[in-house]
């Protein structure tokens, strides 16, 4: 699970999807807890803030790290993630490239292929 917290190296599609699902589970879990504490979405209570402040950055980092490492597996820099700034097309491109296309089979600038 070390791959969830580093931006260095490469990960395959399986680990990418695991990291993405963990990040989404954290987001949905925090959202559910937040909604249970306070069903009014227009205000945040102190309890909600104490839950959101530590967990949301962790989930964002996990999602970010998985995407960067997956880009490395494809032989590209993490800067390619800036494609997501292009509405619709950028996110679709990254969804296909990161989630479904095979990584480099041989060693590349970012290291050896992921063993798992």
Strand and helix layout:
Blueprint lengths: L12 H25 L8 H28 L15 H11 L17
Helix pairs in contact: 1-2
Shape: elongated
**The biggest beta sheet, please?**
none
List the helices and strands in order: HHH
Q: Helix amount, in percent?
A: 55-70%
Q: How does the helix and strand content classify structurally?
A: mainly alpha
Radius of gyration: 16 Å
What is the domain tally? Answer: 1
The number of E-state strands comes to 0
Low-confidence stretches: none
**Count of helical regions:** 3
Classify the beta-strand content into a percent band. Answer: under 5%
Gap between N and C termini: 12 Å
Mean pLDDT: 92
Multimerization status:
single chain
Q: Would you kindly provide a written description of the structure presented here, covering whatever features stand out?
A:
By secondary structure, this protein is mostly helical. It has one domain. 55% of the residues lie in helices and 0% in strands. The protein is built from 3 helices and no strands. Helix 1 packs antiparallel against helix 2. The longest helix has 28 residues, at 46-73. The N and C termini lie close together (12 Å). The model has no long low-confidence stretch (mean pLDDT 92).
In short:
The protein has 116 residues and is mainly alpha-helical. It has helices at 13-37, 46-73, 89-99.
Keywords summarizing the entry:
about 0% strand; about 120 residues; single chain
